[in-house]
Amino acid sequence: MEDWAYPGLAPDALEFPPAPEVEDLVSALDADAPMAWAWANTDMRGQQDAGPLLAGVRNDALLEAFSGPWASADGSLLIVSDAPLQAVADHIGTLRLVGMPDGGEALFRWNPAKLRGIMEALSPARRAVLLGPAQAMIWRENTGPRHRWWMARNPHKPEARFAGASRFVFSAEELQRIQQAGHRHFVTGLAFERLAFRNDDDERDTIAYIERTVAKLSGVNISSEAVIRAMAGLFPWRSQPFDDDALLGAVADTRRSPEDRLDALRAMEENERTQQ
User: Fold this and answer.
1) How far separated are the first and last CA of the chain, in Å rounded?
2) For labelling, which of 10, 26, 117, 175 has a CA lying 20 to 30 Å from the CA of 247?
3) Residue 68 gets which letter from DSSP?
4) Which residue segment(s) compose the domain that 8 sits in?
5) Distances from the Cα of 74 to the Cαs of 5, 98, 132, 253, in angstroms?
6) Residues 138-164 pLDDT 10s
7) Is the residue at 271 inside a domain?
8) Can you say whether the dihedral through the CA atoms of 217, 223, 224, 225 is positive or negative?
9) What sign has the CA pseudo-torsion 183, 189, 190, 192?
């Protein structure tokens, strides 16, 4: 929510006042709301505010903030549970690091944009372990300018993990399904963003075009989602600009950084815009 409050990447970011602490955002809506940091009882105790904050919902103001500005910025999700707030927070804390199929580990982020793919990749029993003491989890999935609400129900009796529990390890098959879902979400989001400017274009054709574009950019070592998103949004007056070999040639030099090639495309776009 802090990233959403004041966009630090804005060119005039230095003109913004300091972003409010996430606890202040909650307290402004409910001064007595119970709160618990999920990482408070982990090895990240000294940096607990880098992890999720859980707040007990006791009034409509917090629910309205959740369903409105926070959810629209991928900043929150709703956990339905009869367990004490601290028990839920401690459960989330045990999932700070998850195991990878190759034996490595990764930081687990409860990102609403990725959550559906994760839940659908897991068997009911594995989903129950992830949900722990939650009867259900509710979140808004934003896909470009469109969105949809989702709910994952716990198929088993809610039960929290405990400190010292064995690490939650994703299998190779689960990870592959999660990555595939993440790719589909990314491509569809870019397509919907483009259709917001070109609403007469066919949706299926636009999704297929974005899929081709992502593959082409990946082929010239451009894999950053932020860079691809910026490139895909250029030349909105053209139907399918990256099907133009000349335009793709402008980003083909892999000796240059993806950001440098993005700058070159932006210069081309500005030149074409002024000539219209």
Assistant:
1) 40
2) 10
3) I
4) 2-170
5) 12, 21, 22, 35
6) 999 999 999 999 999 999 988 877 666
7) yes
8) positive
9) positive
